[in-house]
Each structure stands twice: as C-alpha cells, then as structure tokens.
Amino acid sequence: xxxxxxxxxxxxxxxxxxxxxxxxxxxxxxxxxxxxxxxxxxxxxxxxxxxxxxxxxxxxxxxxxxxxxxxxxxxxxxxxxxxxxxxxxxxxxxxxxxxxxxxxxxxxxxxxxxxxxxxxxxxxxxxxxxxxxxxxxxxxxxxxxxxxxxxxxxxxxxxxxxxxxxxxxxxxxxxxxxxxxxxxxxxxxxxxxxxxxxxxxxxxxxxxxxxxxxxxxxxxxxxxxxxxxxxxxxxxxxxxxxxxxxxxxxxxxxxxxxxxxxxxxxxxxxxxxxxxxxxxxxxxxxxxxxxxxxxxxxxxxxxxxxxxxxxxxxxxxxx
Length: 319
Hints:
Layout: E1 27-30, H1 47-58, H2 67-73, H3 79-91, E2 95-103, E3 109-117, H4 124-136, H5 171-182, H6 190-204, H7 210-218, H8 228-238, E4 258-263, E5 270-271, H9 292-295, H10 305-317
Parallel strand pairs: 1-3
Antiparallel strand pairs: 2-3, 2-4, 4-5
Helix pairs in contact: 1-3, 2-3, 5-6, 5-7, 6-8
C-alpha cells in the first residue's frame, strides 16, 4: 500500500508581523537534545499535523502556544482542527504541556503554562524524565506579569488577582466564588458555593491551594455551559487529586518556589507525568488505550511506518 503525504512540511504562512509572544515565563520551550532541522522533519505525519508541526518548530521560545492564537496564524485550520492536531502531536511524542508554580519578586506566586516542544519525537519515559528534571532544577525567580482575563484561553492565562474573600469565608468557599471572575461560564451563586463547599474543601485536605483548584476547574471548558453548578460538582468529584505521600518541606523565607507538573494536552487537567501517558488524561484518551502497553508512544524509527501513519489517521477521526 502506498504511503501518502511523505513530502516535507508545507511552508509556514508568511506574515508581515512578528508572531505573538506569551507573557514572560509562558509559551513555547524547546526541549534539549533535538536533531538538527532538515527538510524531512515530520514527513511521517499526516498533512495537517505536518503543516502545524513545521509552523510550531519555526516559532521562537516564548511564543504563545494557545489554540486560539495558533489558529489565527494558520488560515487553513480553525481552532478545533488545531486542537486535534496538537493532541495528535502529543501522542506522537513531539510536545507536552507543563505548568510551573513560580514565586517572583515580592513573593508574588503565579502559575505559568508552557508547551515543551521537541523536533525529535520522544517516548513517555523521556518526557517524564524531562518534567522531573524541571521539577528538581534550581531556578532563579521569574517576574511574571499579571495577565488580562478577556479573550485568553486557560492554558495561557495566569490566575488573576482577586479581591480578598469576605471575613469568615473558608478557602474552599472563596475559591468557588472566584470561578466566575476567572471564567464567566462558571459563575456560581452564593447558594451554589455553599452547596459545593464540602467537595472543594476535600481538595485542600490533599495539599493543593486555591490557584490549583481554580485552574483545574476552568481548564478545557466546553463552549457552552448550561449548568455551572452541575459542571463544577462533576469536576470536583472526578478531578480530585490523590493524597500526597508526604507533606512538602516549606521553602526558606525569601527563597523562590517552583512546582512543576504536566497537564493534559487536550483538556488541561494537571497530573503527574506517569498519569498522563501520551500527554493525555484518561478521559481524553481513545477507548481501548487505557493500558500502559496500549498508550506507550513508539518512535517512528522503531515501528512499521504504515502502521504508524494508519494509527495517526484513526486518531484524527475520533470526535
């Protein structure tokens, strides 16, 4: 059987304006130890993925990597197509989404969201090692500017400053009340917050903070939310993190804090690297790919080319 689309990636669309850059600390990050750029890069990928991969590969570090921003620069594809392509590139081993909790100057804490990109396809073990190295690496505190809320997707937005909660409100209640300010689709009433407060409080007993809770609840929202309280209740139950094995040692006063975790390429839910094979959570993986053997990423040079291309095409047919 003939293999289709084996030519090099189409040229990235020309633009008279520079590509939008993310705020300091965000955006694209080039992974280490990549092969040199050549005309045959991404040649085994289907046409759409090859085109988008070639475009991302040309972007400088720090470039914005949200789906909406990429779609604006790629006139051939809309946001849904770009999102599907990023999922396929994650499965193929070219990228991973990572979030880092950084304390900057003045003790201001922010989550920053990055997309690590490798021109060379990597397996799950390699990506897990990279995330582990990022977690352990000593990093100088980064100044991170506050980001506007309007017209920004969750993967590229830092938690905004929010007025302090009313006196007497629990951290769980305050985090739920904050959701509507982060994303209007999850605006809850006072009664809703009171009803959901016990579920949210259970997250805090597992060692997470309000920023973690809010970002986990707003990540990957559908375009329309008919029942904010129902959706938040479902996510509070389904996405609750595991109990921490041991309490982390608090940093010395004035020392920069950095926590690193991978997040699902499609929906943005955070988790440990080993819990997100192919960069995807359980809900975003295809049926039948739940086992480690089925989800392990194999590099193109280590498998039959026809099988590899066929599997990628089957992935693209999934809703």
